Known about the structure:
- By secondary structure, the protein is α+β, with helices and mostly antiparallel strands.
- It has three domains: 2-160, 2-Layer Sandwich (Beta-Lactamase), CATH 3.30.450; 166-233, Helix Hairpins; 234-384, Heat Shock Protein 90 (2-Layer Sandwich).
- It has helices at 19-30, 33-41, 60-66, 79-83, 105-116, 162-194, 198-230, 242-253, 279-296, 326-329, 347-357, and strands at residues 2-3, 16-17, 45-49, 55-58, 120-130, 133-148, 151-160, 238-241, 263-266, 274-277, 302-309, 313-320, 362-368, 372-380.
- Strand 11 and strand 12 form a beta hairpin.
- The longest helix has 33 residues, at 162-194.
- The chain is elongated.
- The chain starts with a strand and ends with a strand.
Amino acid sequence: MNQGNTIETAFAPAERASQSAVLDDFNLFSGFEHVSEIINALPYIAAVLNKERQVVFGNRLLLEAMGYEKFEEIIGLRPGELINCIHANKTAGGCGTTEACRHCGAVNAIMNCLHTGNKITSDCRITAIVENKEMSFDFEVTASPFWFQESEFVVLSFKDISDEKRRQVLEKLFFHDILNTAGGLRGYIEFIEETDNPEESKMYLKTVSRLSDILIEEILAHRQLLAAERGILEADFKLVSINEIIAETVNQLRHHDVCQNKNLIIDEAAEQVFIETDPMLLKRVLLNLLKNAAEASLPGQTVLVGCLKKLNSVDIWVKNETVIPRDIQLQIFQRSFSTKGKSRGIGTYSIKLFTEQYLKGRISFVSNEREQTIFTIKLPLKQV
């Protein structure tokens, strides 16, 4: 007998097998020694799921990885509930039933496996709560059909490819950014070598100086990101002017390639606000927000930035005129997700990482036809 038939879902079926049915399946697998030996021989985390996507059996690696001692503690849970995915408890239906679950590699692999009877392998990005902090994981998941005692099951295995994915993304992003800037720097040095005009040389030298500063900034930015990912970055809080940080960031970006033919404007109503924060990290976050907004804008469109002081916080916001497609909105802060192709996807993830884990703030956004797209950083006025 199934439970939860009346529970609404935005994607996968919400119904679950009854607890007694789940325990019957667990006892069925536990009673056959060779089944246990086979699944424990697998080199990856593996779980046996019923057709309602609930765990009915698993290997020892599954228990060890999830921090459980007995299988009875996890029987009946779904994969996202095991991992403590941020979406797993947002709806009454649990794992697989939110709108965001439409883009989950694990849920899609399981459902495709059940539907086709074929082995399905997919990449899966999951943001989970670990020790009260959000952490991003990249898995390669494989869902394999399995019939046992005339009942249909799925063997779901997880291979953690987080380090591999992170290395690919960071290396490609680093070399992309550094080579672009270094290429521009080399070009202007060649101009200086070829010109005999002192005024031209002076103009080119200013550009070379600016590109050198950008190159150093990009190297420092990647070093900061690596330190933040490893949890060893130390924020340096001091009293700063938000308005000055906004002005410095906008001036730095005005001549950037992504801002060509775009209007980068500071809102005239921006209030003068002083807060305690890390100015370098905040500037890095704001740079990423503004670059993303400019990249998303069409020639002639405006990117607006401003700040608003509230009772206990300050909101720094960046607005552009385009609207983010809904499927992208659902994945926007996930590491390794990008609209710019494979091995990209660190910009919005780093914004969230720096803002929420190091600047003690929050990042949010709205994107619709009426409001267009607005990203907002909310920072506390005083550190406690």
